[in-house]
Amino acid sequence: MSESYESERRAGGRTGGRTDGLDVAALQRRLAAFAAARDWQQYHTPKNLAAALSVEASELVEIFQWLTPEQSARVMEDEGKAARVEDEVADVLAYLLQFCEVLGIDALAALSAKIDRNEGRFPVNGGR
Amino acid sequence: MSESYESERRAGGRTGGRTDGLDVAALQRRLAAFAAARDWQQYHTPKNLAAALSVEASELVEIFQWLTPEQSARVMEDEGKAARVEDEVADVLAYLLQFCEVLGIDALAALSAKIDRNEGRFPVNGGR
Amino acid sequence: MSESYESERRAGGRTGGRTDGLDVAALQRRLAAFAAARDWQQYHTPKNLAAALSVEASELVEIFQWLTPEQSARVMEDEGKAARVEDEVADVLAYLLQFCEVLGIDALAALSAKIDRNEGRFPVNGGR
Amino acid sequence: MSESYESERRAGGRTGGRTDGLDVAALQRRLAAFAAARDWQQYHTPKNLAAALSVEASELVEIFQWLTPEQSARVMEDEGKAARVEDEVADVLAYLLQFCEVLGIDALAALSAKIDRNEGRFPVNGGR
User: For the region Disordered, what residue ranges are annotated (chains A, B, C, D) (predicted)?
Assistant: First the structure.
């Protein structure tokens, strides 16, 4: 799916994200190439990737575990903590994208569709 | 950060993702607007958002919990399961993006930097 | 409540866990019999049981997800929430005990040994 | 192992949990004393304890993350992995017991009641 997404984007003349690779499709390609070059795809079953994603999500929770809500809001002011937070965000995103790649899911489209549905399920009150 | 990212994208003339809103910045804006319109930002502390992310990640694991690796590879062939998987992927991504928005983290940049670091930490053997 | 449970047990002269099965070994036997009678042991690999345990732990987190620390301290005052909390505690304990049963781990002994180690690792300051 | 533990306790004529503290109530007292002596109760809100429990549960999952079902069944044969597994089991149990202590929940009673309910919800077929 990432290949057809890529060619569809090019065919339409869109740059589809920044040229230096900061778009989802490019990151998915880098992640897939990284795993393939090290022969790691054997481990990347959807079940294992979902488990890995949940493990990384917990590592993100762990950073905040004993912090008060106020301390958690200021976490990026601490250089060491900020680096850990960005590292775990990267890990969560990495496993989410690899999970989607293996199952052929377009994560951004799935989220866009979900927001559409939620806008219907949780309408804003009139007069707000 | 999402605002400067947006104006930077416009200033450079890049479409930075598809015009129908399927890029990370647009999704973050939709999520933020959705929460603001319902006065939900009060709940969106980084600590709560990290916990919510881990809860959704576990809901994704739950779909695969009793499946064999073979069954998990074929999960998208079952219409009901496929819908649940896409739904949980959307939820995980939603909380990850909202978490990043609140803390001013660029998730795609964080992942790109992480892959750079990993390529150094886990070099591929010569001749491979 | 743990103190009244303990004194109730002593006052009645009961031994080694209560005769109605409220000790860990008896619960493990009931859980094993329950699974065996329904032919569910095939699903109870250590990997699956660990995943199931993490899923239930997340369901426990979910109850508190949007609560403030103050609201979370009063959660047992709400009948519906209290029932959910007890239900998830039971589920977490169930999977933990089944996990231990399958791998031959004595959970109480493991914890006792860990507390011993921690008392060495985190000594209390003199004069405290 | 749970059967031999039980018979060892009975054969020695020991009562209400072993005198060296291997019962739930004794472990809860040791955990509470450990936290109080270090002034850690301030961190032990139900919400934080639930999050800590989920983090430890994920650390248990992590041990099995890339293992096949067959490898996971043999994990206790590897000394290093076995020690990690016992350590995480202890951590999960520790936070579960502290969570229950703070909220006044009897974990064993909650599980016993749940098994009773499940025996009604999932009856075994006649003739089995």
Answer: 1-21
Does a structural domain hold residue B113?
yes
Q: Which of D63, D56, B116, B54 is nearest to A48 (CA)?
A: D63
Please report residues of A whose CB lies closer than 8 A to that of B47: 64, 67, 69, 72
DSSP letters spanning D74-98: TGGGSHHHHHHHHHHHHHHHHHHHH
Which 32-91 residues of chain A touch chain D by CB within 8 A? 43, 48, 51-52, 54-55, 57-59, 61-62, 64-66
How far apart CA B20 and CA C29 sit, in angstroms, is 57
Write down the pTM of the prediction: 0.84
Looking at the 3D structure of chain C, how many domains does it have?
1
Residue C89 is part of which domain span?
Answer: 41-128
DSSP calls for C63-108? HHTT--HHHHHTGGGSHHHHHHHHHHHHHHHHHHHHHHHHHT--HH
Q: Percentage helix, strand, coil, to 5, in chain C?
A: 75, 0, 25
Q: What's the CA gap between B122 and A39, in Å, rounded?
A: 12
Q: Are D45 and A64 in contact (CB under 8 A)?
A: no
Residue B50 belongs to a domain with what CATH number?
A: 1.10.287.1080
Q: Report chain A's C-alpha Rg in angstroms.
A: 18
Q: Which of D:97-116 have CB within 8 Å of C? A: 97, 99-101, 103-115
pLDDT tens sequence across D89-127 = 999 999 999 999 999 999 999 999 999 999 988 888 754
Q: 3-state class of B4 per DSSP?
A: helix
Residues lower than pLDDT 70 in chain C: 1-21, 126-128
**Hey, what are D81's tokens?**
């992995």
